[in-house]
Write a structure and sequence with these properties.
The complex is a heterodimer. The N and C termini of chain A lie far apart (37 Å). Chain A is an all-beta fold. In chain A, a hairpin with a 5-residue loop joins strand 4 and strand 5. Chain B is globular, with a radius of gyration of 14 Å. In chain B, a hairpin with a 2-residue loop joins strand 6 and strand 7. Classes of the chains: A mainly beta, B mainly beta. At the A-B interface, strand 4, strand 5, strand 9 and strand 10 of A face strand 4, strand 5 and strand 10 of B.
Chain lengths: 115, 113
Amino acid sequence: SAVISQKPSRDICQRGTSLTIQCQVDSQVTMMFWYRQQPGQSLTLIATANQGSEATYESGFVIDKFPISRPNLTFSTLTVSNMSPEDSSIYLCSVEDPALGYGYTFGSGTRLTVV
Amino acid sequence: KQEVTQIPAALSVPEGENLVLNCSFTDSAIYNLQWFRQDPGKGLTSLLLIQSSQREQTSGRLNASLDKSSGRSTLYIAASQPGDSATYLCAVPSGGGADGLTFGKGTHLIIQP
């Protein structure tokens, strides 16, 4: 199955700053997905990133807060901008994986704490 | 809009017991269902994927079933071990095509040695 390298694995950031999370996939994929998991909660889809076009954001998430880049078919970044303590979450990237019968494979996650 | 519910929210059992985790979904027009395991503070590990044409899938001590018509899936864990302690998440495709997944809130499982 696809292997996703996500970094950083964790970070502690000051409020008002920004953090960029990177995901690298070992195969070419059409779409990459970014999720947020707030403490004690399940995963919520932030946006879908398609190479060559702007990301599609879910209700409640906006580009100014979570800008996404997708420069090629194996790489994407998510930036969490102007952070506040409420942004403290685990952020995960995911791809649909043909080797998994078109199930989804996830990166190892980025644990973000905003102080 | 697809909604996924998992019962129970938490479960603590002694080692060696067989157990069942439940998942229900509101929109039965899914093409697959996936069970994941999540260890604290970590990413997701895919356990089993059941295609809509299948009724069950097995991997080692794990068996997952799918009943699309009733909107239900179960994950059966046989002969539980302390290493099975984790949160188990059920997820279904959110909509047509590759639209990402909708997740349940998970079952937090503790296996007591």
